[in-house]
Amino acid sequence: MPAPRAQEAVTVSVFAQRFSATRRGARLARRLATHRLDLWHLPYGSPVSDTVTLVVAELAANAVLHGRVPGRDFELRLTYDRTVGVVRVEVSDTHPAHPEPPEPAGHPEVADGGRGLLLVEAVADRWGVTGRTGPGKIVWAECAVRGPLL
């Protein structure tokens, strides 16, 4: 009979959920992300929770406003890697167009909108766009977990 193996600690947590490509779906994605972070001991109101919640809100809103394809959902995936202290947010949709890089604040293109990716760029440590299996793309951002959580 083989000796029992020691069980390794879980250091990566993942949450994935599809949402309807509506304003209600984007709001639910934000709320569930905040709740999941709290379950992962990144409490409500902490700097990392507020940052990740803002990133989820902006990327989900973009998926609904700019990435919507009728009859298709968008997906939110959160990954928390405790060993490196990073929360990765991925929002995928089936629209083929990739978001444009943010323009500096003084440009008229951001006068009435277009600030979402500027906010993501300002608060996330890194962000980008990658392809996905099937149609569409994944817009992702990474936020470091730093210092005290409260």
User: How many angstroms does the end-to-end distance come to?
Assistant: 48 Å
> Would you report the number of β strands?
5
What is the overall silhouette? Answer: globular
- The chain-level mean pLDDT equals 87
Total domain units: 1
Approximately how much helix is present in the residues? 25-40%
Q: Topology as H/E string? A: EHHEEHEE
Question: How many helix segments?
Answer: 3
What's the CATH H-level superfamily name? Histidine kinase-like ATPase, C-terminal domain
**Rounded Rg:** 17 Å
Strand order of the largest sheet: 1-2-3-5-4
- Just name the CATH architecture: 2-Layer Sandwich
Report the portion of residues in β strands.
Answer: 25-35%
User: Could you please say which CATH topology applies here?
Assistant: Heat Shock Protein 90
Largest sheet: 5 strands, antiparallel
Q: Structural class from helices and strands?
A: alpha+beta
CATH class: Alpha Beta
Q: Uncertain runs with pLDDT below 50, 5 residues or more?
A: none
